[in-house]
Amino acid sequence: MNIGEIARRAGVSRSTVSYALSGKRPVSAATVQRINDVIAELGYRPNASARALAEGRTRTLGLVVPPASRRLTDVQLGFVGSVVDAAAAHDLDVLLSPSGGDHDRSFERIVTGRRVDGVILMEILLEDPRVERLSQASLPFVTIGHVEHPGASWWVDVDYGALITRCVHHLADLGHEEVVLINRSAELVAAGYGPALRSATGFLDATAARGLTARTVCCADEAAAGLACFEQIRTQWPSVTAAVTINEAALPGVQRALHRAGLEVPRDFSLTGVIAERLAEDFHPPLTAADVPAVELGRLAVDLLLAQIADAGAAPRHALLEPPISLRSSTGARRRHG
Amino acid sequence: MNIGEIARRAGVSRSTVSYALSGKRPVSAATVQRINDVIAELGYRPNASARALAEGRTRTLGLVVPPASRRLTDVQLGFVGSVVDAAAAHDLDVLLSPSGGDHDRSFERIVTGRRVDGVILMEILLEDPRVERLSQASLPFVTIGHVEHPGASWWVDVDYGALITRCVHHLADLGHEEVVLINRSAELVAAGYGPALRSATGFLDATAARGLTARTVCCADEAAAGLACFEQIRTQWPSVTAAVTINEAALPGVQRALHRAGLEVPRDFSLTGVIAERLAEDFHPPLTAADVPAVELGRLAVDLLLAQIADAGAAPRHALLEPPISLRSSTGARRRHG
DNA sequence: GCGCGCCATCGAACCGGTTCGATGACCGAG
DNA sequence: CTCGGTCATCGAACCGGTTCGATGGCGCGC
User: Fold this and answer.
1) How far is CA B106 from CA A61, A303, B66, in A?
2) Distance CA A14, CA A3 (A)
3) Which single residue has its CA nearest the C1' atom of nucleotide D11?
4) Residue B313, exposed/middle/buried by CB under 10 A (0-12, 13-18, 19+)?
5) Which band of pLDDT confidence, cut at 50, 70 and 90, is reported for residue A41?
């Protein structure tokens, strides 16, 4: 069931079969017909490993994802799905590599084994050893998110700082004077996770610019933590009237805490942030928020990666998306004496 | 940077390098040392395609997932994560194939291109053409979920029928007399999606056995549908006092509907079903439910697949898991005159 | 001291494709 | 009729590993 067998049955040489399939040299119509008949009859398809070896490319992209132990957020899930779909649209397969920190067998296999033509890296830190590793391996790659000093690397990202800034201005315009940022977990912040740090910076800058009192808390990525966290906010800073968050997993807990405290959104409390569209719409009431364009970001990452693979010497490109805030119904004017 | 280069620098032949790396023939300690030094210095790793071609195996597993357009449920996400992790534990990579229906280029590439040593298929239907396709391609595969007549195929699954039956008995024991099954979407049921159909059968059998009045509804996989669906239940069958569900995505909507109707769980209404553990615990109050052991199922699928690959002639094996119901706090005795 | 056997290593073939240079048949122009 | 050029096809080399049979050197036993 290999190309030699096809050639034998069609009465031609192996190279002729190869050319008939690839079209890289002309083959007479009659011969093509005969070869195609044999192929259809035997259900032949070329061996991917052999082809990869000969061509020097695997027609496969690597996608480095956080290990399953760390649950994926909705936004991350959106990335994975859109990358896989975008790759499939180009007839490329996606090889998954669960990678946490530095030395990871799966990651190393991907990088040095020439198993993939390029890599998409997600959930990267401000200082991420994997970026360095890929650079020196001279394997094309695109990161979703960007390191502090991207240098010559290609990336796509959402401008968390700008989006959080916009959320703060929105709240300030509504008259809020003391607002809180519910960030991702303290571990992620300590590890140097870009979105968390850039959100914090944007939040502090914007609140300062508008003269608001700023509070920030870190919150583990789970509903229970969201509940605890919100109750702590109410006790510690009772005059806070609005929250900005990028923590999707905490939302169900925040919702419960609001309910338990008898606070109605947006009458008594405003809530906004950067949140996957589906979750923003599932919230009650639907969240006014910057929807992370996960699908677009994933597709863009694949496009950039393919451009980089096609022209290895090209100048690095990147895309910093700043989606508009979708006005839904979770923010309102601050109530005096609220 | 290939094996020939290593051999040249170490002053040995290519086969000696190969044997030194694989250990399949003895190589003197001094030579091994020299080879390892050169390899460490150059950072050499064997080319995966070449190795796959020579060995006839790719050290890669295929995972067929629903296309991204259909959002993954929490349970499905658990499968993907655990399969990837379990494969990584065996130093295997995972190739993703988004596949919906019948003819799918990505699926065909996986099946006939000898890109993978075996395939794990999830989200299968009672009659699934892909199972047939894999069988005739004589490529080892394991399904998560099982077709109606599994024949000689290997599979792992959760016994939805038995679990739903247990839920019904639990409610009957608590005195409920009219209960509703909130199923997955009507499209899935129509397509022949196993869990949905087996749940419905189990539900009808169990309610009949206990003399309960049974109601069933299909509900799209989203919060809004859950809300609408529950409100319809309240109008149409006002005396229903408990619900059983396998629809995770609808839960936030159900929660909101309960709240809107002023029903307190479990005092006024009982809720149970088959639900991912995390979601059951995020619910308010935490759901008494059969937690789908997604992680165990994924690991098991990989184990069975590897067994099948190792011994192609082995008799088909399968595993039907029936996890216990976790008693949390969403079910209670029916209130008279409720 | 000679032959035997073992140990380490080598060379060549092979896996299944792609690609390049060469070859032969055929056609039209001179 | 011959020569040049095109077109279709072929054969061989190559991609980078693995594996099998062969070989050379060495130590040991008799």
Assistant:
1) 13, 19, 12
2) 6
3) A13
4) exposed
5) very high
- In chain A, % helix, strand, coil (3-state, to 5) comes to 45, 20, 35
Nearest CA in chain B to A112: B45
pTM of the predicted model as reported, rounded to 2 decimal places: 0.93
Residue with tokens 């300690």: B29
Q: Which of A115, A138, A251 to mutate to test the interface with B (most CBs of B within 10 A)?
A: A115
Which residues in chain B have their CB less than 8 angstroms from residue A58's CB?
49
pLDDT reported for residue A338: 43
Reading the block at residue B337, the tokens are 């005159």
Task: Assess whether the previous peptide bond of A285 is cis (omega < 30° from 0).
Answer: yes
- CB-contacted nucleotides of strand D (7 Å): 7-12, 14-21
CA–C1' span, B55 to D27, in Å? 37
Residue B95 forms beta bridges with which residues? A95, B62
- Exposed/middle/buried for B205, CB within 10 Å: 0-12, 13-18, 19+? middle
What pLDDT is stored for residue A312 in this prediction? Answer: 84
* Amino acid at the residue B122: M
pLDDT averaged over 10-residue windows placed end to end, chain B, 338 residues:
95 97 95 97 96 97 87 86 94 92 80 95 93 93 96 95 97 98 96 96 98 98 95 97 96 92 95 93 92 93 97 93 94 73
The percentage of residues in chain A with a pLDDT greater than 90, rounded to a whole number, is: 86
* B29 CA, C3 C1': Å apart: 29
pLDDT in tens, A273-301: 999 988 898 888 999 999 999 999 999 99
End-to-end CA distance of chain B: 77
pLDDT (0 to 100) of residue A102: 54
- pLDDT, one tens digit per residue, over A196-246 is 999 999 999 999 999 999 999 999 999 999 999 999 999 999 999 999 999
Answer whether B110 sits within 8 Å of A93, measured CB to CB: yes
Contact A94 B91 (CB under 8 A): no
Look up tokens 């004496």; give the residue. A337
| Token digits of residue B32 | 């091994």
Beta strands in B52-207 (DSSP E): 60-65, 93-98, 118-122, 141-144, 154-158, 178-183
Q: Does A66 or A55 have the greater pLDDT score?
A: A55
Burial B70-108 (b: 16+ CB within 10 A, else e): ebbbbbbbbbbbbbbbbbbeeebbbbbbbbeeeebebbe
Closest CA to B188 of B242, B230, B228, B247: B247
Inspect the interface and report whether the beta carbons of A114 and B47 lie closer than 8 Å.
yes
Of chain A, the end-to-end C-alpha distance in Å amounts to: 77
Q: Which residues contact B117 (CB under 8 A, 6 or more apart)?
A: B57, B58, B59, B60, B61, B92, B140, B309
